[in-house]
Amino acid sequence: MNFEQMLNAQDGAASHREKMPLGEFYKKQIDRKYRNIVELRPELSDSLVFCEALKNDHKWTMQQPATQQMHYELHEDSSGIYELELEQGNFTTLAQLLDNNPAAVTEKDFVGNLVGKLVDFTTRLHESGVFQVCFAPQNIFIRKGDGSPLLLCHGSFYQSMVDSKLLYDGFEDYVAPELLTPDGKADERSDIYSLGKLIDYLFSQGSMPYEYKAVVKKATDADPARRYSSVADMKAAISAKRGAKRSLFMFLGAIAITALAIGLYIELVPPTVDVEFVEPVPAANELDDPYDYHFDPSTGMMVEGDSMFTEEDLKAYQQKAEDIFRKRFTEAADAALSKVYDDKRMSSSEKQFMAGSNALMEDLMKKQTEMGEESGLTPEQSGKIAQEIINSITTQKQSQLSRKGYIKESEDSIQ
Length: 415
Known about the structure:
The chain is α+β, with helices and mostly antiparallel strands. It contains 14 helices and 10 strands. The protein is 49% helix and 12% strand. A hairpin with a 2-residue loop joins β4 (72-77) and β5. The two termini are 60 Å apart.
């Protein structure tokens, strides 16, 4: 430890110091102004190989204009490089941010924006043949104000060290297992592993959303061959699962609206009242009538002779009535729902979509009542069959859409 490091240790005794792979991050007063400083660990600053790698990393970094790249200056004396002075700004580490405010991960779009920006910048690093290696929360800076993430040094510059594990002492959980072996070489899959570990950390205090669970499991597989082949593939998987989740909610919402409409209709239809009629005393000539008329369900006519209206006949007639209603209502429902789940209609605003859909559903409910009565079915029977038909056609129509949802009010206002 040189003289400057001893002074830093004394001056920073009362200030907060955040441990990170390179050393300790804290604020230091220089020329009456507080600067962001990373004081290197002595076992690293004493290594000539590390210092040479740090100079190469610094040279490459200073040529990068990306907003996710943290720029810095090297401070050195006769003993070598002892600290990094970061660019001007109000920064903290991701670990410190979440220690002070664990609920930050529940804020809208916090995780999505953080992961999205890191993935985009990592893609640019890979295009230049540079790999981050360690996405530990202590190794990621957050700009206060806009919450934008920044990366400092890049692990692939330090692979020439005999013991590269020394650089990640205490942070091995965020480094791909193959890199902790003597022959390990950083590549895209090792960064994918570390990104997966970071996402897992973000949800360590709560439930991980559906769109991240399967992605994290694949990204952190111990076998590199089973991980995503690129961060672009990883990002696409997250987007695809988020889209599937939204489509599922849209489908369930459509079913709920349909069920609610039918339920309200059935609830509002006045119940049938059984009226008991007293049959008049038959006339004398009617008592002497030798003929017995009954209804024949097979012909739908009144015929003479002994009654043949058996229980099997009743069932057959009931089934025939249901088949007739099912056929007629299917045609009507298909025509109505084709207007609801139309690409042009789905591209309209939420308000227009719901207004048009409600009108079509009311018309469909009227047809259900009319067709049910004409087929001799009770409202309960026709309602049950109608619900099955609507659900089936709704699923079919939604699967044929090129657009999977109407434009919500927020989207419509932007446009």
